[in-house]
Amino acid sequence: MKCSAIFFLAAVRRGTDASERICSEVSKMAKKTQAEKTAQNDETAKGNDDPMNDDEEPNFSDPEGFVDDITDEELLGDILKQKPSETDGVESVIVVDNVPRVEPDKLEKLQSVINKVLGKFGTIVNQYYPMNESDGKTKGYIFLEYNNHLNALTAVKSTNNYKIDKSHTFKVNLFTDFKKFEDIPENWEPPKAQPFKAASDLHYHLLEPDAYDQFCVLCGNGAGVSVQIWQNSAPEPTLLEERNRWTETYVKWSQLGTYLATFHKLGVALWGGPQFTQQARFSQRGVECIDFSPGERYLVTYTPRTDLGQDQKRLVIWDILSGQEKRSFFPDGSSVWPIFRWSHDDKYLARMGEDVLSVYETPSFGLLDKKSIKIPGIRDFSWSPTDNVLAYWVPEDKDVPARVTLLEIPNRNEIRNKNLFNVADCKIFWQKSGDYLCVKVDRFAKRKEKTEQKYTGMSYNFEIFHMREKQIPVDSVEIKEPIHAFAWEPVGSKFAIIHGEIPSVNVSFYEVRYGHQPALLKRLEKKACNHLFWSPSGQFIVLAGLTTMAGALEFIDTNDFTIMNSTDHYQTSDVEWDPTGRYVVTAVSSWKTSVDNGYWIWTFQGRILKRVNLNAFNQLLWRPRPPTLLTAEQIKEIKKNLKKYSAQFESKDRMRLTRASKELIEKRCLLMKAFEEYRTKRIDEWNNQKKRRLELRCNIDTDELDSDSKNVEEEVVEFFVKEETFVLDDK
């Protein structure tokens, strides 16, 4: 196919007719059946054995009776999109229907309204309002020309079905769409039913009897990129899949672990099932960022590049199962990823604009209530992980204080407000269960505004919102030292804060209970850490000193704050817990440093299990698991009766270790046997060469020289080493 693309581009330079001829020939070449390709390979292999065939040209002709049943669009769709076409200069022209009909004296007012609505999408370089000769009124449709095609396309997508008044709703189309509508066939043929194809089991990994988790390893760069899928089995991880050049940049698991996404020049591919077969492909050139919806129904792809052509869509939302494009957007280059943020149930997604918050609903992906929410000065927002509630904050404006607001969707009710004073910045942190919300507030004593804003006398507050209590009370925790990290316990009600002056910082642990203020549980002083990594199952935490802190690690049990292990992994750049909280990986990525790349696997207690050194190691990602199907009561009952099951698990572990020892012994025996066979073979070979050695050495048997003790003379040589003088006491 690469060869086909090269031929096609070369033909384009020679002319359109030549390109069509070569494109047709290329499609014929690519449409050979697998059986014909195999037969051709066999003939080629036979020909390679004959030296007379070296200069023979291969035969690319179709066999007699070959039926071409694949269209060029199916075979070369991605390439044909780039095929140059003739233009008459009307790509930037749009046609607006259902425009109010007005007299000449009101035309200027109509033009003002039209320019206000449609002028914000780009510069309008030309406009034409057709007039009716009989009554002098406009005809109800207009033509507008923009300065480029991209602006015209944006205007069509944004203003089609725009309601200008009670009686008029715009219908907006590109002028070039008329040709598309003219080519619609008069006789409609219903699409043919596609044969059913049994899908592969995308959740097979959840049926693993020993509940082993999988992880993905990416190493190499450029053409040497390699992707490996491992199963974290005992006693050694098992390699399930390895493919070279599976991706061109990096990989990403979907939210529930169903799909593995790989990145390519022409788009993104999703893989899954026992053999990791391709499940979907989404064509968009230059994709650098993707985001799965929490329920894996939708995928957002985004390219920050602006040099891919005027028709290039920058952000596209796709339906994963059908592969259909749901909607596209053209965000500006300064947007912070993720541009869109999903609600927990895939029903809504929202993005922040200048003084507005736009909430879209699925599956239509239209604006909720057909309008954005006006929030002057909005700086950040975040969805609750369990409810359709938005938290956002706005900064101070003169005498109006800063404000944190909880907004209910879809009814847009403000269920809680909190005013804040002397605010420099805010960060929003939701607890995983949605029971609590923490807003970190950076406060200042004085603010200087000359060339740039500067704050002095900084202090920090943590505003804790009790989401499940009546009227949502708010408690405050104040810390006057610099804050380096904050993290909620995923399962539980504790949170941890790293504060103090680097390099010796303190780590404080608080607990929040229903109807009570946050209580300080423990303060660990003089720690070398700057990141917090809670276990997904709660209770256990890793304090890590990444990048500048040489990879210091501390494994802590927060039940009694026992330090289970203090160690380090030099130059650690990443820490990743497995979904069950049993294992944790520390990694040194070549994206951060080129020295000592690789990853180490630890138990949750900090006991090292495996060290893997990999040149050009880039990334390790555990495969996520979907939420458990057990209720909270069932989990509580299992924990209560854990001793019942522990004996069974211990017996299974012993059997596994015994089996592993047996396999190791068998492996060593096979190696020893192979060595003995090799040694015997070499001894026989050496004995068979003895006659030749005697001939070369004048019939002197040098093999036995060292075995004749009578011909050996022993000589003892003594030599002076050193001289020491001791002074004896006369007394």
From TrEMBL:
The keyword Repeat applies. GO terms for cellular component: eukaryotic 43S preinitiation complex; eukaryotic 48S preinitiation complex; eukaryotic translation initiation factor 3 complex. Residues 92-177 form the RRM domain. GO terms for biological process: formation of cytoplasmic translation initiation complex. Residues 28-66 are annotated as: Disordered. PROSITE patterns: RRM. Signal peptide: none annotated. Residues 51-66 have a biased composition (Acidic residues). Coiled coil: none annotated. The keyword DNA repair does not apply. It comes from the Eukaryota. Residues 33-49 have a biased composition (Basic and acidic residues). It is found in: Cytoplasm. GO terms for molecular function: RNA binding; translation initiation factor activity; translation initiation factor binding. InterPro entries: EIF3B, eIF3B_RRM, Nucleotide-bd_a/b_plait_sf, RBD_domain_sf, RRM_dom, TIF_beta_prop-like, WD40/YVTN_repeat-like_dom_sf. Pfam families: eIF2A, RRM_1. Keywords: Coiled coil, Cytoplasm, Initiation factor, Protein biosynthesis, Repeat, RNA-binding, WD repeat. Gene3D superfamilies: 3.30.70.330, YVTN repeat-like/Quinoprotein amine dehydrogenase. Belongs to the eIF-3 subunit B family. Component of the eukaryotic translation initiation factor 3 (eIF-3) complex. The eIF-3 complex interacts with pix. Interacts with mxt. RNA-binding component of the eukaryotic translation initiation factor 3 (eIF-3) complex, which is involved in protein synthesis of a specialized repertoire of mRNAs and, together with other initiation factors, stimulates binding of mRNA and methionyl-tRNAi to the 40S ribosome. The eIF-3 complex specifically targets and initiates translation of a subset of mRNAs involved in cell proliferation. Component of the eukaryotic translation initiation factor 3 (eIF-3) complex, which is involved in protein synthesis and, together with other initiation factors, stimulates binding of mRNA and methionyl-tRNAi to the 40S ribosome. This is Eukaryotic translation initiation factor 3 subunit B. It comes from Pogonomyrmex barbatus (red harvester ant).
